[in-house]
Amino acid sequence: VGYGVMKTPGLVINGKVVLSGRLPSSKEIIELINNNK
């Protein structure tokens, strides 16, 4: 809740919520990490 994630799972990268409320694929997780470095 500290980041405003109201549904799990949630993914925070560098203090920014990049995913909330659904289960991403492995490929999508890699893309999110690469796009938010």
Which features does this protein show?
alpha+beta; two-stranded antiparallel ribbon; 24% strand
Number of domains: 1
Radius of gyration: 10 Å
In angstroms, what separates the terminal alpha carbons? 23 Å
Q: What integer is the average pLDDT?
A: 91
Q: Could you tell me the strand content as a percent range?
A: 15-25%
Overall helicity? 25-40%
Shape: flat
Taking the sheet with the most strands, its summary is:
2 strands, antiparallel
Q: Which structural category fits the helices and strands?
A: alpha+beta
Low-confidence stretches: none
Q: Kindly state the number of beta strands.
A: 2
SS field, number of helical segments: 1
Q: Secondary-structure element order, as H and E?
A: EEH
Q: Reading side by side through the largest sheet, how are the strands ordered?
A: 1-2
How would you characterize this protein structure?
A two-stranded antiparallel sheet has the order 1-2. Helices cover 27% and strands 24% of the residues. With 37 residues, the chain is an alpha+beta fold. It has one helix and two strands; from the N terminus they run E-E-H. The mean pLDDT is 91. It has one domain (1-37). It starts with 9 loop residues before the first strand and ends with a helix. The chain has one helix at 26-35, and strands at 10-13, 16-20. A hairpin with a 2-residue loop joins strand 1 (10-13) and strand 2.
